């Protein structure tokens, strides 16, 4: 008999039919009721065993985590919270799970604990919901750009350049450290080497994206990117996924419009397609909120928060305006900011970003025109202001609970200005001649941005640690499998 997926029978009224389902045991109560999940839905289906007529030895093998195949009749359920159940005719154990050893018990586990068993946490309802939403968001992003005619570019993972010029790269090497001779002190003479060339894992596909945009007009990338920064926060990964659209004949204004439209589109998509998952996570979040001190609780539930993001225009202000707001405010009656903003030119700390978004405007905020010295070499240089301060046509989008979710800019398309800035910032101009060719031959205004995919998933799922929205997080001390 062909297997039926649980998601396809949960709402059926076609009772009396005989079906086969296969999945993993979540719970087994009173020697009679098995809750089975096959991953197709966050919901389980209840299977009722005729235990008087079933072999005891077989029933003993129905343990949490075991894989089973059940054939039976679909009937209306009288139980609370479920419409259907399956009356068992045949029950087969496909794979046993030793209850003494299986780490997932039929109870609520902490996210910290589940992080330690990342290879099994997919089997919990929470992670089923998170990764279904992650999938839906990825699909929505491709749909958004595809519908607009953007070309999806696969940019290289191994590259010789540092797109951000920040030196946060993992080196790639073909050296087998186990085979090269060791020095007396056990160290090896390490020379970065990719068949003779120095290379690293990409920090961003932007530079290659720019090359493609200057031919296709509009492209996007969506792939893994790597940052060798040793930051142990709830918002940083060493390996994360980034979406990077790049658009020719486009300025900063168009870039902001595109980013806001994309974010609203994908949030809308999740609301429309992941109702069950969002409802489950929302309930989970409310329980967590109850345990926090009253003044630390979020004012909005998850779905309201997502709708709120859709219903409001993002605030758009310059960095200089933001600094003025921050200088004139105190985060609350008594407390000053831990990091004071007294000088124009400093980068914003996450507490400043969160203050602007969560306390001051209470809306997503797009900050533009940052000081040139705290941004990357490729950003388009604005005319210096009346006091001679130099800014670039940058934009960062700040989201409630997240901070920076998008970073982007209009690009410097003027060859002389770009070269001059690269020299100033010690970027190897000669080695990047291929990049500068776009400015030599038919240069045109263009712009783009990078959306951090895990930060988007964090926002939509309401999870609070970035390690809980990527299957196998890569963070310092976390690369076991
Ligand atoms: O601001 P970033 O560094 O910008 C770039 O890489 C540009 N090349 C993008 C572009 O214009 N095409 O990174 C973009 C976004 C950030 O806003 C953040 O959401 C995410 O990528 N991000 C990270 N996410 C998780 N862990 C990290 N270590 C991240 N670093 C950046
Ligand atoms: Mg940034």
Automatic annotation (TrEMBL):
Its main location: cytoplasm. InterPro entries: Aa-tRNA-synt_II (IPR004364), aa-tRNA-synth_II (IPR006195), aa-tRNA-synth_II/BPL/LPL (IPR045864), Asn-tRNA-ligase (IPR004522), Asp/Asn-tRNA-synth_IIb (IPR002312), NA-bd_OB-fold (IPR012340), NA-bd_OB_tRNA (IPR004365). It catalyses: tRNA(Asn) + L-asparagine + ATP = L-asparaginyl-tRNA(Asn) + AMP + diphosphate + H(+). Pfam families: tRNA-synt_2, tRNA_anti-codon. The keyword Protein biosynthesis applies. GO terms for cellular component: cytoplasm. Keywords: Aminoacyl-tRNA synthetase, ATP-binding, Cytoplasm, Ligase, Nucleotide-binding, Protein biosynthesis. The keyword Manganese does not apply. Residues 131-473 form the Aminoacyl-transfer RNA synthetases class-II family profile domain. It is found in: Cytoplasm. One of its GO terms (molecular function) is nucleic acid binding. One of its GO terms (biological process) is asparaginyl-tRNA aminoacylation. Transmembrane segments: none annotated. Its EC number is 6.1.1.22. Belongs to the class-II aminoacyl-tRNA synthetase family. Homodimer. NCBIfam families: asnS, PRK03932.1. PANTHER family: ASPARAGINE--TRNA LIGASE, MITOCHONDRIAL-RELATED, ASPARTYL/LYSYL-TRNA SYNTHETASE. This is Asparagine--tRNA ligase.
């Amino acid at each position: 008999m062909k297997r039926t997926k649980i998601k396809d029978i949960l709402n059926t009224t076609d009772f009396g039919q005989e079906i086969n389902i296969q999945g993993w045991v979540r719970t087994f109560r009173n020697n009679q009721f098995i809750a089975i999940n096959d991953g197709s839905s966050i919901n389980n289906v209840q299977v009722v065993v005729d235990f008087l007529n079933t072999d005891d030895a077989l029933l003993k093998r129905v343990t949490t985590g075991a894989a089973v195949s059940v054939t039976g009749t679909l009937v209306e359920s009288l139980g609370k919270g479920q419409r259907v159940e399956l009356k068992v005719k045949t029950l087969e154990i496909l794979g046993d799970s030793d209850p003494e050893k299986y780490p997932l018990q039929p109870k609520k586990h902490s996210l910290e604990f589940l992080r330690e068993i990342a290879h099994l946490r997919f089997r919990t309802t929470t992670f089923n919901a998170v990764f279904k939403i992650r999938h839906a968001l990825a699909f929505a992003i491709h749909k958004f750009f595809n519908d607009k005619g953007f070309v999806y570019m696969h940019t290289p993972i191994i590259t010789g350049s540092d797109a951000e010029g920040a030196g946060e790269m993992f080196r790639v090497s073909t050296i087998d450290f186990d085979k090269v001779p060791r020095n007396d002190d056990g160290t090896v003479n390490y020379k970065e080497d990719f068949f003779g060339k120095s290379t690293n894992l990409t920090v961003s596909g932007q530079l290659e994206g720019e090359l493609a945009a200057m031919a296709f007009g509009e492209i996007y990338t969506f792939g893994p990117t790597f940052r060798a920064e040793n930051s142990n926060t709830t918002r940083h990964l060493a390996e994360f996924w980034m979406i990077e659209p790049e658009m020719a004949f486009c300025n900063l204004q168009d870039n902001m419009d595109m980013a806001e439209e994309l974010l609203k589109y994908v949030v809308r998509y999740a609301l429309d397609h992941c109702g069950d998952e969002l409802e489950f996570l929302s309930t989970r979040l409310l329980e967590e909120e109850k345990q926090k001190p009253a003044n630390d609780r979020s004012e909005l539930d998850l779905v309201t928060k997502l709708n709120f993001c859709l219903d409001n225009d993002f605030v758009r202000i310059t960095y200089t305006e933001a600094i003025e707001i921050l200088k004139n405010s105190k985060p609350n009656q008594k407390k000053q900011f831990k990091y004071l903003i007294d000088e124009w030119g400093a980068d914003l700390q996450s507490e400043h970003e969160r203050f602007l978004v969560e306390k001051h405007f209470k809306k997503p905020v797009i900050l533009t025109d940052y000081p040139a010295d705290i941004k990357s070499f490729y950003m388009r240089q604005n005319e210096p202001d009346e006091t001679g301060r130099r800014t670039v046509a940058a934009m960062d989008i700040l989201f409630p609970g997240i901070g920076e979710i998008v970073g982007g800019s209009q690009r410097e398309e003027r060859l002389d200005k770009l070269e001059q800035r690269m020299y100033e910032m010690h970027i190897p101009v000669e080695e990047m001649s291929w990049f500068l060719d776009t400015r030599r031959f038919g240069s045109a205004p263009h712009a783009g941005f990078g959306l951090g995919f895990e930060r988007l998933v964090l926002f939509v799922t309401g999870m609070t640690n970035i390690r809980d929205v990527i299957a196998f997080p890569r963070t310092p001390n976390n690369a076991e499998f």
